[in-house]
Amino acid sequence: MKRRSIRQLVFGSAAIMFVMWFASCATAPEADVAQPEPIKEEKAQKPVVVIETVYLVSEEQSWFADGVADERRVNRYDEATTNKLESQLYDAEQKLQERTIYEWKEGLLLSERTENGAGEATSTHRYEYGNSLLVEDRLFDQNDELQTRLHWDYDAEGRKIRWEVYNGSGALLAYTLFHYEGGRLSSTENYNPAGGLEELFESEYENGLLVKRSQYDQNKKLESYTSYRYENALLVEEIEHRKNGTVIRKTLYRNNEEGMPVEITYLDASDNVLERITKTYIARSVTRTVGEE
Predict the structure, then answer these.
(1) What is the pLDDT of residues 130-185, one digit of tens each?
(2) At 7, is the secondary structure helix, strand, or coil?
(3) d(CA 169, CA 165)
């Protein structure tokens, strides 16, 4: 009998609680692109062309706690850009379970079509943009019927300030508000359709790095919090705590020389391994112009 991934078993019950916070963190649909560190741009007399190296996840392998291989995902990218063209998911027996095809236009992801192992369509995401910012994500089922619609609003600086979820009939299901301090996301508030607060997340930073994220209930009482530890500005440990400080679970990150996480290990409160993920990357050179008006 096929064993389920520990992420489904352990984190499944928490998925609904965190889905609004998690989905809102991405500024565009999934890309598996590691963003390079921002370059400090001083005012220049002439534009300067900069060549940067980015790292793309080419393969991701899941391992059970006993070291037996589980699911494996393989990604294929456009040779001239960082655009992901196809992603294939294989089960532990290396049988194709799922395939996703990505359609792009002028650097923007227009759609994701997912098929099962037999090549039958199961779902399609279609995206819309405003000023190159994602504003709509419509999810359609295998019969091309609308299931959900996500909408984002932004401030003048291009930061997300509101995220809304609608069902296929257009009824509002929930919405999220984002607040910033010092140029960083400071809090996220999740609301029900009637405008009642459901949960609140607050973020704390040190030296520009996220060190703590706290979750509060509808009465703004602490429920849990997650702490983050870094080495050389790279995340190496993430610990989820109950409100009294006891540990729920841990996540350990092992990074390569380029600063990319190549191994992620999930542990329970007693440091028993629950699951391990290994990642392989390919490098691409990206050219951009600094100092353009």
Answers:
(1) 999 999 999 999 999 999 999 999 999 999 999 999 999 999 999 999 999 999 99
(2) helix
(3) 11
Contact present, 16 and 190 (Cβ < 8 Å): no
Distance CA(145)–CA(235), nearest Å, equals: 41
- Specify if 63 maps to a domain: yes
Q: Which domain holds residue 18?
A: 6-290
Q: Based on the structure, what is the number of domains in the chain?
A: 1
- Is 286 a member of any domain? yes
Q: Per residue in 70-81, pLDDT tens?
A: 999 999 999 999
The answer as to whether 1 is a domain residue is: no
Q: For residue 249, give the H/E element and its range.
A: strand 247-255
CB 218 within 8 A of CB 197: yes
Mean pLDDT of the chain: 89
Do residues 26 and 35 touch, judged by C-beta distance below 8 A? no
